[in-house]
Structure prediction request, 394 residues.
Amino acid sequence: MAGRSMTRLVAIALALAAAATAATPAHAQGPTEPAPASGPGPLAPRLRVMIPGCRPADFDPDAFLAALQVELASRMLTIDLTTPEEAWERDENGPQAAAALVLKFPSCETTRALLVLRDRARRQVHRRAMELHELAPPLRPRALALSVAELLRLPPRDRPSPAMRSAPAASAPHPARAAGAEGPPPRAEVARPPRWWLGVGLGAGVGLARGSSECAWNEGPQPDGRNYSGSCVHGGAAKTTPVRGGLTTAPLHLAPEAGFHAGARWAVSIQGRIQVLTLADEGAHDWAAAVLGRASCFFGSPRLRYYVVAGLGGGYLRHRVPLGAIATMADDPAIRERSIVDTVRAGPVLFSVGGGLRYQVSSHLGLQGEVSFLAAAPEATAHADLNLGVYLGF
Prediction:
């Protein structure tokens, strides 16, 4: 009996000891170092999203957040929208989110977006740049949200980040920087051309001159008692000089232009052509003006683009035409026989086609070169212009 009682007491003591051990809190065993994460791991229950105040006018932050909520709905995330300055204050004085996403634009007009994911648990920063200029503005928030979701779901080793930093938790970035933006700031890129532009170019051209000179140079004495020989005379009865078709010049013109980009590739504009120099003799016409409406299609990179253009408008072109030595009945012996330079007019209906290059120096300044071919009717000609200029975008 004594042995059975002892056995029963031992069993009861062991049961009580096991119960006490099971009831001991987990932290009583001492802190345990977490195992290093080898996969994507669970996402933070709270994701801090920072959208800059300097962003393209056609970017809709509400649409981006709504798309992000949809893409991350299965993760049961709470999205906390803050500014970089507010995020800094919270990091210093309050609880921190386990992950922070910074959306940055190099300038207020570019559509090149930089996504910066700051993973506090792993002390890592991951960056991804996206070019959005080929997407219509309504599609850009969804494209960014898809990229964010993909970046969050990838394991760290697969994330397209050149920067993997392991800074101590005590080292905080400078307040002037956005949270997660360690390292030098990204180089500003031009992601799309300005929506509006104003430009001006200088040019010269060559064309076929045909028809008659605009002046009569040998009208002789007239009823008013004056001798007009050797001088330019205009009028329906004036005896102009026939001009055979030949290649001649249009020395100098200005080409102001105002335009609007209707999309990533298409643009419409109004261009003037103000001929300011003909190098004709005194009395002959020395200027001409025309206006054309144009449509352009652009190709190439955002910084260096080439384009084709077509236009329709009205106005006149003038070509410089040497008439050669003309014997006149002038009273002045010095002008009785001399080489005369006149002009031939073409227009007033003008058609144009051409192409050119644009180089975007900065967000607001660009350089441009263009070759255009013009045809005129009913005073017909075929003409080519070379224009070089600058433009300002806004």
Notes: Residues 219 and 295 are 47 Å apart (CA to CA). The chain has four helices and 14 strands.
